[in-house]
Amino acid sequence: MPCLYITTNVNFDGVNTDPFYSEVTKAVASIVGRPQNLVMVVLKGSVEIVFGGNKEAAAYAEIVSMGGITKQVKRELIATVGSILHTHFSIHPTRFIFKVFDINSLPLPSKL
């Protein structure tokens, strides 16, 4: 069950975000190989973000998944989500940071 969490300084007042949610959910499901009904997307706007010394449109995102993350999947997620953010909210891909985290890659807890 992947969860994509996006924080941005873009103001969404009066913006229909439904097309974004639909497109990004389909993309994540397809890339990670999970059904769409198991993908969670959280989008938080109007957050104070300074990137590169200015407040132009920028975003920080992270995805947490239980498996399904390889180097190729990671690259594809970064490129695709970056492109979707640019298309819907004019956030340039160079002003977007994406953390990809697979909880299955964590070491198993010690039995001590």
From TrEMBL:
Segments crossing the lipid bilayer: none
GO molecular function: phenylpyruvate tautomerase activity
GO cellular component terms attached to this protein's record: cytoplasm; extracellular space; nucleus; peroxisome
Pfam families named in the record: MIF
Domain of life: Eukaryota
Family: Belongs to the MIF family.
Name of the protein described by the UniProt record: LS1-like protein
Organism: Arabidopsis thaliana (Mouse-ear cress)
